[in-house]
Design a protein that fits this description.
This protein has 131 residues and is α+β, with helices and mostly antiparallel strands. The protein is built from 5 helices and 5 strands; from the N terminus they run αααββββαβα. 37% of the residues lie in helices and 16% in strands. The strands form 2 sheets. A 3-stranded mixed β-sheet has the order 4-3-5, with no helix packed on it. β1 and β2 (68-71) form a beta hairpin. α1 (8-18) packs across α2 (26-33), α1 crosses α3 and α2 (26-33) packs across α3. Pfam families: FUR. Its cofactor is Mn(2+); Fe(2+); Zn(2+).
Amino acid sequence: MKQLKYSRQRECIKSCLAARRDHPTADAIYASIREEFPNISLGTVYRNLNLLVDLGEIRKLHCGDGADHFDADTSPHYHFMCRECGCIEDLPMEISQETNQLAQKYTDGKIESHITYFYGICGNCLKKKSS
């Protein structure tokens, strides 16, 4: 297996993502790291994010809003997405193995895991609506 060459830009992208909990898009990460790397291109950010996804170092989330979001937390966990403001939050709840068992009844394949997104209105948006 070929050794991956070290890249300061890739490490900065990874560090930026690890410091965030908002599940940013590539555009948001690009805006954040341009301070340190003013000449970096959006294409470089996309390529490095996709490489990190392929290496299993980060996750790519498809939440239905048309944009890819990224998560440094690769452990199995659920997400909540607000339909009002678009924020994405980690849900600190146990992964349900019962869901895998239920789904297993409907396939002759082998269910190994699942990804679940919950959609609704976040607490901040609910507060704004009631004000």
